[in-house]
Fold this sequence. Notes:
By secondary structure, the chain is of the alpha/beta class. It has helices spanning about 1-5, 20-30, 35-50, 65-75, 90-100, 115-120, 125-130, 130-145, 190-195, 245-255; strands at about 55, 80, 105-110, 150-155, 170-175, 175-180. The protein has a single domain, classed as HUPs (Rossmann fold, 3-Layer(aba) Sandwich), CATH 3.40.50.
Amino acid sequence: MEALTRLPEAAKPLISPVKSGKERARELEALYGHLLPNEIIKLAVEELFPGDIASVSSFGADSAVLLHLVASVDTSTPVLFLETGKHFDETLSYRDELVSALGLTDLRNITPLPEKLVTDDPDGLLHKTSTDACCAIRKVEPLARAVVPFAAWFTGRKRFQAETRAKLPVFEAVSERIRINPLAGWGSEDIAAYQELHALPEHPLIPYGYYSIGCMPCTEPSSPDDPRAGRWKGKSKTECGIHLGGLDSSLDSSSL
Length: 256
Ligand code: SF4
């Protein structure tokens, strides 16, 4: 018991003698998965994981909605942005505009490890030969590193976005941590209505037909009906890996 009391605060919620991450996520889903997005966020920030939760944001086409909901509860919630080095300039300026407009006070730009770039992607063209390897060093490893201090984090994923997300729960386990998708059940019309109601700024590339926006080399215009069709167009890849098993593995092997 003496040893437990000396552990850092951030590590304490992860130590459960009874429940695994999966069991905890299932329990949270059964209890709270039906709540509205604003209720889920308030509950998670204030009661479930106080001081121990962040929000991941791509500052993409509909990121403003989740960030507005989070800011409505606590503007000091850490916001994790994967600064891959491959974003559109418009995304970086939108990030700064949105952070300022919403009053968010803890934006964290997470960059790839310089030594990995030197060894694995010295000319910055790895995305042309292996998108998986490029995402691994520019997104998956950096996110695994960024979430280590937290017991939980929000994402803006929604079920309607892709077949791979059709069964997305609100609460998921990632290793022993909890990933929360408060907007899982919202459709595109809910997102649009919320954005309009709160007069949220729009990503500057939307008028050019970009309805899902990631890194510049891997993003093309798409349609509102199939927003993610412009991501890794012509390849079988549909997800960068940060929401798939790669993050679990990276967390398992990182310094927890
Ligand atoms: Fe690299 Fe493209 Fe993945 Fe960005 S989305 S990390 S450029 S492969």
